[in-house]
């Protein structure tokens, strides 16, 4: 899919995803080694966006499995369409049971869920397993089989093996430790907060109306906020929100009043706002 | 060197690197090592930054391992061999160039200056075997922190700090200087490793990950680093506690109601009725030794429990050195300022009488006497401390009285198990009465809290 690490960054940048060297290298390796990519990092740094960008670059279909507590095999893998099967049985009254049985357990009555969808078919796909840490441990066991061999066994149909391996991205917020076995099968990528220069470029790309000077001071303030000991440090998503807010307010420079009025956009807890105000001398007036 | 020999050398370097990481508790299997080698083959050796990321992606599984990885990587895949090609620079000239580089925030230049600084200022000793390179000596002679004012004025003069962001300037420069200090330390490690052998330096001079540092020996920086992990750890624990609660709520069959329900199906129990749990949230009492020796451990645990407070109906925290006082209120306000917590406890709460050494017997006795009412059959008590009584009476009856009044008592001891009961430690005597757990690192604390906290 990619020829070099630089190729990855360049093509991701075309889709509007500015990748740090770490991200570009790992994506390149995931493609080369054919291994799933486990992405961790704080909320709002672009973990899900990465999968979308890769799909766009590769011209692949994005298949998404959103994990939540209680997600199970029938939601992740496949399910038989019981209602349709019942209709089929009642429609063919004078058939023998053997005929009916072979018929109702055929592809037509199979409802493929994301994991099976990603494996079947010849077109390129990117499989995004979002918030893997929210799923129960049992689902991890299921993923192990799918991710190591890229095959799924449906007892009535046999084993379905991927003709073309999908590019797999798993994301996690680390609210639960993922099992060692799953981690071993993946390349690990931690997306942290970008450095100042990259973040400035991201802000300028996502909010074109913001001029260079404002973006620079915005990013500097956010950097200072991140260095504080806050309950929830602002992420890239918050930086972009803030830039949009300032744009909407028509503020073209950061000053005391603007920051005080809009701090709630970047900080989500009252105690954080208080602490940041104190540290930034906002109440010095 | 033939191509074959080069490959062998690279493979040996890679396996040595993996072994050094394993020695630091990073679990790496053979499969990952093979993947790492494939990654090296795919990426080539031309770009060191790319190689670093590639190896990190294949070998690491957790974010916390990254600092150790970076330090070991610098030793096994150094950016250069030997000293710099240039003549050793003198101190004043280095300071001038450092000030310029800090002003411009020129990372590449800073890295080059770190190399030159260690080469010019960091060498000590003359005879082989006793000589080496010291980052401490380099930084003492160079004193980069004293450049702060100069760099700030320079930046202001250029107008870079105008406007609101001006007030951030000093902190930013401080961070740049901090980064430079780290560069110097890494460079000194590299030079020493050339002299003494990589394996030894990788084992001894690379600091372990924060969650594996002994509370008792953690320095100020390490404790600050640990404090930053409190919120993420608390969130993780809260998720697990919630999951445990849900699991505990289902599954146990209420036999009486199942049988009664089975009457409608002719006595065949078709539908099992599950016992419903009363959603009573447990209460937690924390009794912490805050004397000097274990203060770091107690602080961390208090902050962690405070961060978990919404998981419980009531959390009350008591601190003692040789007297007991309640500090719950201080802790709530302390959430915004964890660094000052211990100072505030010592300043505002009556935790010590006329001397400053801990006395478990008196403190536990006072707690059993004054605060016995806070203990109910729903309370779980955690005692935090090393159980070093300074040779006074351990007051075992008080512990018995506390244990009788509440649901459960756990004692978390930051000392290694082997040291329990040695010297003035009454740990074994207390361990006979209440379950005592070794809790030396943040990692151990996390597992214990997950296992022991009532649901």
TrEMBL record, chain A:
<feature type="domain" description="AAA+ ATPase">
    <location>
        <begin position="33"/>
        <end position="197"/>
    </location>
</feature>
<dbReference type="InterPro" id="IPR003959">
    <property type="entry name" value="ATPase_AAA_core"/>
</dbReference>
<dbReference type="GO" id="GO:0016887">
    <property type="term" value="F:ATP hydrolysis activity"/>
</dbReference>
<dbReference type="GO" id="GO:0005524">
    <property type="term" value="F:ATP binding"/>
</dbReference>
<dbReference type="InterPro" id="IPR027417">
    <property type="entry name" value="P-loop_NTPase"/>
</dbReference>
<dbReference type="Pfam" id="PF00004">
    <property type="entry name" value="AAA"/>
</dbReference>
<dbReference type="InterPro" id="IPR003593">
    <property type="entry name" value="AAA+_ATPase"/>
</dbReference>
<protein>
    <submittedName>
        <fullName>ATPase</fullName>
    </submittedName>
</protein>
<dbReference type="InterPro" id="IPR050764">
    <property type="entry name" value="CbbQ/NirQ/NorQ/GpvN"/>
</dbReference>
Automatic annotation (TrEMBL), chain B:
<dbReference type="InterPro" id="IPR008912">
    <property type="entry name" value="Uncharacterised_CoxE"/>
</dbReference>
<dbReference type="Pfam" id="PF05762">
    <property type="entry name" value="VWA_CoxE"/>
</dbReference>
<protein>
    <recommendedName>
        <fullName>VWFA domain-containing protein</fullName>
    </recommendedName>
</protein>
<dbReference type="InterPro" id="IPR011195">
    <property type="entry name" value="UCP010256"/>
</dbReference>
<dbReference type="InterPro" id="IPR036465">
    <property type="entry name" value="vWFA_dom_sf"/>
</dbReference>
């Amino acid at each position: 899919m990619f020829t070099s690490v630089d190729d990855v960054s360049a093509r991701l940048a075309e889709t509007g995803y500015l990748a740090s060297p770490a991200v570009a290298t790992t994506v390149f390796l995931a493609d080369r080694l054919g291994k799933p990519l486990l992405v961790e990092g704080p909320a709002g740094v672009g973990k899900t966006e990465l999968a979308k960008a890769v799909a766009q670059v590769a011209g692949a279909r994005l298949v998404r499995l959103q994990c939540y507590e209680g997600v199970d095999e029938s939601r992740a893998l496949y399910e038989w369409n019981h209602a349709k099967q019942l209709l089929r049985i009642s429609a063919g009254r004078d058939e023998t049971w053997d005929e009916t049985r072979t018929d109702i357990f055929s592809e037509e009555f199979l409802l493929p869920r994301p994991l099976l969808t990603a494996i079947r078919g010849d077109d390129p796909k990117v499989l995004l397993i979002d918030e893997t840490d929210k799923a129960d441990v049992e689902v991890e066991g299921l993923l192990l089989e799918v991710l190591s061999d890229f095959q799924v066994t449906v007892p009535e149909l046999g084993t379905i093996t991927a003709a073309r391996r999908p590019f797999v991205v798993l994301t996690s917020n680390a609210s639960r430790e993922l099992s060692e076995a799953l981690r071993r099968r993946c390349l690990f990528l931690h997306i942290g907060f970008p450095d100042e220069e990259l973040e400035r470029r991201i802000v300028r790309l996502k909010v074109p109306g913001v001029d260079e000077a404002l973006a620079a001071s915005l990013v500097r303030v956010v950097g200072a906020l991140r260095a504080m000991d806050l309950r929830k440090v602002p992420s890239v998503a918050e930086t972009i929100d803030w830039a949009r807010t300032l744009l909407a307010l028509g503020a073209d420079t950061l000053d005391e009043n603007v920051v005080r009025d809009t701090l709630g956009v970047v900080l989500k807890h009252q105690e954080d706002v208080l602490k940041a105000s104190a540290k930034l001398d906002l109440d010095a007036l | 060197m033939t191509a074959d020999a080069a490959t062998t050398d690279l493979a040996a370097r890679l396996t040595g690197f993996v072994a050094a990481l394993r020695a630091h508790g990073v679990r790496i299997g053979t499969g990952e090592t093979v993947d790492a080698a494939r990654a090296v083959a795919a990426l080539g050796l031309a770009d060191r930054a790319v190689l670093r990321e590639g190896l990190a992606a294949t070998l690491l599984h957790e974010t916390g391992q990254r600092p150790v990885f970076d330090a070991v990587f610098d030793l096994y895949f150094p950016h250069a061999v030997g000293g710099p090609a240039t003549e050793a620079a003198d101190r004043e000239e280095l300071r001038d160039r450092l000030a310029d580089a800090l002003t411009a925030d020129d990372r590449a230049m800073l890295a080059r200056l770190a190399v030159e600084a260690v080469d010019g200022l960091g060498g000590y000793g003359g005879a082989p075997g006793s000589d080496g390179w010291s980052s401490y000596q380099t930084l003492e002679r160079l004193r980069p922190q004293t450049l702060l004012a100069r760099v700030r004025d320079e930046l202001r003069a250029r107008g870079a700090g105008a406007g609101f962001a001006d007030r951030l300037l000093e902190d930013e420069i401080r961070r740049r200087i901090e980064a430079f200090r780290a560069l110097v330390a890494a460079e000194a490690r590299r030079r020493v490793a050339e002299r003494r052998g990589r394996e030894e330096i990788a084992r001894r001079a690379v600091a372990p990950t924060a969650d594996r540092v002994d509370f008792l020996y953690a320095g100020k920086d390490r404790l600050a680093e640990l404090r930053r992990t409190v919120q993420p750890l608390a969130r993780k624990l809260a998720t697990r506690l919630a999951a445990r609660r849900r699991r505990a709520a289902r599954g146990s069959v209420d036999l009486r109601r199942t049988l009664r329900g089975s009457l409608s199906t002719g006595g065949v129990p078709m539908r099992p009725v599950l016992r419903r749990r009363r959603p009573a949230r447990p209460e937690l009492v924390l009794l912490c030794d805050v004397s000097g020796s274990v203060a770091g451990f107690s602080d961390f645990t208090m902050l962690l429990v405070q961060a978990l407070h919404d998981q419980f109906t009531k959390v009350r925290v008591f601190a003692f050195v040789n007297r007991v006082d309640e500090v719950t209120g201080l802790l709530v306000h302390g959430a915004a300022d964890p660094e000052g917590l211990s100072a505030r406890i010592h300043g505002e709460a009556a935790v010590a009488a006329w001397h400053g050494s801990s006395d478990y017997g008196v403190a536990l006795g006072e707690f059993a006497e004054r605060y016995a009412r806070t203990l109910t059959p729903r309370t779980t008590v955690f005692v935090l401390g090393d159980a070093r009584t300074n040779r006074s009476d351990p007051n075992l009856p008080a512990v018995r009285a506390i244990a009788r009044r509440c649901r459960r008592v756990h004692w978390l001891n930051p000392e290694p198990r082997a040291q329990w009961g040695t010297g003035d430690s009454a740990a074994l005597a207390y361990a006979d009465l209440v379950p005592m757990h070794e809790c030396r690192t943040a990692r151990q604390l996390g597992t214990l809290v997950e296992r022991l906290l009532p649901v």
